[in-house]
């Protein structure tokens, strides 16, 4: 790594870390602490659950601050270099803007990759832990629930062995309605069982009024058999099934894909889950998009002031997340394709960023 690259990265690091702390503080102060205060006043939450709630809330906040911090870092670092005429001196020495901006773009790309991994391995588990504490330790809401479109996954050795779908699940009645059981061998669907309902009786699930379809290796129907009463190959009791059901923000990318495929086989609308799936990549990649925008903007006149850079960052962030909120809602509602709903803000950002980069290089 050349001395120039190290120098630029050193300029970038301080504002980036400051941005993570500053933006995280804003989220914590305006949202997290307010919710925690409500749990204390309304439910009398104790010290231990409150501390764990605070810790579990941090990963999802930090992921959101990575793009913001990269924008702030690129604006402030290049703004300072430009304000002290160091950029002018570098370009007088024959260095192009592309060469100066390359280390920023590389760092932003790796920040995006790290953010993808972090949001996949840490954030879903933290969200699940947060919701579990709220539901079972603070609200003490342990009464049976009624849920729709549940999916039960049986996994062995990282491979799906069985997917069970129920259009409605009533935990208090220990009953599932409109049940479909799909059996797999080596990731190949070999059997489908449909039943009117399934009831938990004598520590086992019994399906009523259904049909079994055996499939050939080519996926064609081999034979069918009707039944009035049939044992369902699911060992989990109603309480375990109720606890197992996850919200979209608690699922990993793999779990989201499995859930979406299971719902699609039953012709259930999946736009909400698909939008969430695409956002797992779109939001982390915003770090690279913001670097494309912030780096050339830092070269504009009168950018040496940190307050101007911070203010400009807030304006850009507000515009980006306003667009993201609108397109996400449209994608979840099915008004536009989910992939477009998740990626449209980044597409706009890339177009604007490339224009600014081209203009700065001239």
UniProtKB/TrEMBL annotation:
Protein name (Swiss-Prot/TrEMBL): LptF/LptG family permease
Keyword Protein biosynthesis: no
Keyword Membrane found: yes
UniProt-annotated location(s): Cell membrane
Organism: Anaeroselena agilis
Main subcellular location: membrane
Segments crossing the lipid bilayer: 12-34, 54-76, 97-118, 281-299, 311-330, 336-357
Topology in the lipid bilayer: Multi-pass membrane protein
Keywords for this protein: Cell membrane, Membrane, Transmembrane, Transmembrane helix
Xref: InterPro entries: LptG/LptF_permease
Pfam families: LptF_LptG
